[in-house]
Amino acid sequence: MKKRINVAILGAAGVLGQRFIDRLENHPTFEIVALADVMVGKRYEDATKWRLGIRMPSKVKDMKIAAGDSFSRNEIDVVFSALPGGIAGKIELDLAKKRVLHNQQSKRPPDGGRRPTDYPRSQRRTSLFD
Fold first, then answer.
1. What angle do CA 91, 83, 10 make, to 5 degrees?
2. First to last CA, the chain
3. Does the pLDDT of residue 9 top 60, yes or no?
4. Per-residue pLDDT at 103 exceeds 90
5. Which residue, 12, 36, 61, 113, has fewest beta-carbon neighbours within 10 Å?
6. Can you say whether residue 5 is alpha, beta or left, with left for phi > 0 and alpha for psi between -120 and 50 degrees?
7. Which domains occur in the chain, in start order?
8. CA 31/CA 4 separation, integer angstroms
């Protein structure tokens, strides 16, 4: 059996963080082991207003929210960041030894820049969620 990749989600209570949770919940490769947001110490279900039109995954309901800078370097393999650019910078730099995947508008190509959907289908990278 293939080793699962332990992931943390920064900004887990926001809509993008919830989308990461939804997409990673039953992923064959990734295992959600940590959630981070500002409501440190609270149960995820108590601290989050679930905004997706589906049920909150039971796997995460009882997880305690951690501070983004408190992750054990040995416990987390990949960090998915749903934080806005102004907040994410320092936290993501602190986690630089981990792989950090983010959706920050400030780090997207400027207008006219090539985006993955601009490339021919044969040259596109495969999605982590497929």
1. 70
2. 19
3. yes
4. no
5. 113
6. beta
7. 5-105+119-123 (3.40.50.720)
8. 6
